[in-house]
């Protein structure tokens, strides 16, 4: 091999190595930068999710506080005035009055009683003292007992005994979700048979609600939850996010099923 | 054993293309990869012709037993298809330059084969053509990475176009100097030049593996 041959071979080897080095360096820079960008995007997304959850939590908590305040005002202020009015009303002597006045008195009395009853109902609905004092199971039982009527709607329950006796913030959210779902089932699905069941499994609290009305499938729910008017579903969704829970709709055996899977409080805290 | 290995390497330009083709048969490719799909099929036909001419050169008439022009043809088709692939990648980066390069390449081919070289040269393939093609394709590959590095959108790294571009990048980076000095090498030490072509063949297998991976990633 002469000098020229050596040079050409050397040039070839150096050339191939240099080109490969250049290419591999750029490839590594590219992969490193892309990974860094992906990591940044992931962190940003996590931060956004945390912020979103905090906003939802704040909104749900302030809604609860507002409900409490309105319930208290209704019960303590309006309820007291109506109660006092009722006492005064009962004190009126109508023995000497004519028949028309007696009839008007009876009508007024029944309207006043109905008003007091309604105010009480709204107040309890807005802020369930049963939930606060006796826990989730009793609150759901009481709520269902109140709205079920043997001729119109029948609600059966099979709830686990593992619910706390003292309501937590999560129990309030669960109660509101159940309340909203039952209202929706009665109002929109026009069901006359509802069953609510709760079980505790693998650190999850599972609620299954089935009914015989015209309910929702998962696809229909996904469509409805983004509609601006669907305030009820949006509230349910917000509380589901807050609980880190999962909500699933399905239809089989001629029944609509709603399954709520809620990680139990210890596991939620562990994730945080 | 060595003979079997050499036989496999010699035919690698054909069988390696069957890997992406096998993926193509299993997975339908999106419109964005149609140019690469077209390249794979065209390359299979050309490479099959190249290897057939080489294997049957003794029984073919003298005028038809050189496959060098087929390498030139493969190089031109590969350049146009991959430059079009990069232009259609929807990367708003160096757009004018990317569109001018194929025009420049066309002018280069016309001038080179009109005044300096013979496209159907019996004795040698065009080192000038193949190395120009390689360096221009390497430019497309590098600008692809630069665009992705500067791009704000953080997407998945291992997309189908990433695999195809990386495969092409490895192929052209490895082969640029081989193509550039190939004519010179065949004149000075022919055996070394022939064994050097095995590097080209191995890099072509790698290229096809990356194309197959790209097809697999994007296929439905």
Task: Describe the protein in words.
The complex is a heterodimer of chains A (272) and B (220). Chain A has helices at 3-91, 99-126, 129-134, 136-147, 169-189, 218-224, 231-242, 265-271; strands spanning 154-158, 193-201, 204-211, 246-252, 255-263. Chain A has 272 residues and is α+β, with helices and mostly antiparallel strands. In chain A, β1 (154-158), α5 (169-189) and β2 (193-201) form a beta-alpha-beta unit. In chain A, α1 (3-91) runs antiparallel to α2, α4 (136-147) packs parallel to α5 and α5 (169-189) runs antiparallel to α7 (231-242). Chain A is elongated and about 140 Å long. Chain A starts with a helix and ends with a helix. Mean pLDDT of chain A is 83; it is low at 267-272. Chain B has helices at 2-10, 12-15, 18-26, 34-55, 68-87, 95-116, 127-150, 160-188, 190-218. In chain B, α5 (68-87) runs parallel beside α7 (127-150), α6 runs antiparallel to α7 (127-150) and α7 (127-150) runs antiparallel to α8 (160-188). The A-B interface holds A 1, 4-5, 8-9, 11-12, 15-16, 19-20, 22-23, 26-27, 29-31, 33-35, 37-38, 40-41 and B 138, 141-142, 145, 148-149, 152, 154, 156-157, 166, 169-170, 173-174, 176-178, 180-181, 184-185, 188-189, 192, 196, 199.
Shape of chain B: globular
Category by helix and strand content of chain A: alpha+beta
- The radius of gyration computed from the alpha-carbon positions of chain B, rounded to a whole number of angstroms, is 18 Å
* Largest sheet descriptor of chain A: 5 strands, mixed
Distance between the termini of chain A: 72 Å
CATH architecture of the largest domain in chain A: 2-Layer Sandwich
Overall pLDDT of chain B, averaged? 88
CATH topology of the largest domain in chain A: Heat Shock Protein 90
Question: Number of domains in the coordinates of chain B?
Answer: 1
Q: Provide mean pLDDT of chain A, rounded.
A: 83
